[in-house]
Automatic annotation (TrEMBL):
Residues 222-277 form the Conserved virulence factor B-like winged helix domain. This is S1 motif domain-containing protein. It comes from Anaeroplasma bactoclasticum. It comes from the Bacteria. Pfam families: CvfB_1st (PF21191), S1_2 (PF13509), WHD_CvfB (PF17783). Coiled coil: none annotated. Belongs to the CvfB family. Gene3D superfamilies: Nucleic acid-binding proteins, Winged helix-like DNA-binding domain superfamily/Winged helix DNA-binding domain. Residues 4-61 form the Conserved virulence factor B first S1 domain. Residues 73-125 form the Conserved virulence factor B second S1 domain.
Length: 282
């Protein structure tokens, strides 16, 4: 049976003008030439991921996808549709919707473009969609990751509750961060560095305070040094694109805006539509 949202191994039945027709001896599905990693011949066995194209036709790809119906993984946010949800890319031509039903009511806490969300796939009304894992799902995952107290761990915000937020680490562990252990606003999918403070009944607890401040101070120093080395002028502003920030400073736009805002609040910089200026530069 050819199952949507899963990997299957199929046989090449024949070659067409568009690609390879694959079969399980009952049904057929197209593996487009653009979705094939190599050339195939009739009779070859091919492991493919099955998804639905824009016309809701079964389609195959040899690309490696980060998540399936049964396997969870991190998917990248590529678009935001206010009032509906966000779209994530799983290395197929068609991006998948992560519905607002699985996101905070406050859209300011929704993921931003290029953020990572930890999901499995699901089929609803013949549409392949993404669904985030809750904390119980994450805790049930088998992982060898173990963290020591005071260890700094990379992860992504995955949940908000009345008392705090949840982080899923890159090692697939759940870390709870009380709101007393964070400053500022965070959103789903935001990459963070969380410091482990304790482990209780198999659940980790952590803090975001120290590292966010330390990272911001380091990024502020990068910006100031650039300005000092370029006659007090930088052709970036808070409106600059992620590509422009990365090319000039080698940091993410998110980190840049955080540090930029801090420098402006400290009255160290000023700006116009095209550039940023270091105050009192001589």
């Amino acid at each position: 049976m050819i199952t949507i949202g899963e990997y299957v191994t199929l046989t090449v039945a024949r070659k067409s003008d568009l690609g390879y027709m694959l079969t399980d001896n009952k049904d057929e599905v197209l593996l487009h030439f653009k979705q094939a990693l190599t050339e195939h011949k009739e009779g070859d066995s091919v492991k493919v991921f099955i998804y639905l194209d824009k016309s809701k036709r079964l389609t195959a790809t040899e690309a490696i996808v980060p998540a399936t119906i049964t396997e969870a993984g991190f998917a990248t946010v590529v678009d935001i549709l206010p009032g509906a949800g966000v779209f994530v890319n799983i290395n197929t031509p068609k991006d998948l919707l992560l519905s607002k039903d699985y996101l905070p009511y406050n859209e300011a806490r929704w993921p931003k473009v290029n953020d990572k969300v930890f999901v499995r796939l699901k089929v609803k009304h013949d549409i392949l969609m993404a669904k985030p894992l809750n904390r119980f799902d994450i805790k049930s995952l088998k992982t060898d990751a173990k963290y020591a107290i005071s260890e700094a761990v990379e992860g992504y915000v995955c949940h908000f509750s009345e008392k705090g937020m949840g982080i899923v680490t890159k090692g697939l562990k759940y870390v709870f961060v009380p709101y007393t252990q964070s400053r500022g606003e965070y959103h789903i999918g935001e990459e963070v560095l969380v410091t482990i403070t304790k482990e209780l009944d198999g659940e980790y607890y952590g803090t975001l305070n120290a590292h966010k401040e330390i990272l911001m101070e380091g990024d502020k120093e990068i910006i100031i040094n650039y300005l000092k080395n370029h006659h007090g002028v930088m052709k970036l502003t808070a409106k600059s694109t992620a590509e422009e920030v990365e090319a000039l400073l080698g940091m993410s736009r998110k980190a840049f805006k955080r540090a930029y805002g801090g420098l402006y609040k400290d009255e160290l910089i000023t700006f116009d539509e095209e550039k940023t200026l270091l105050k009192d530069y001589k």
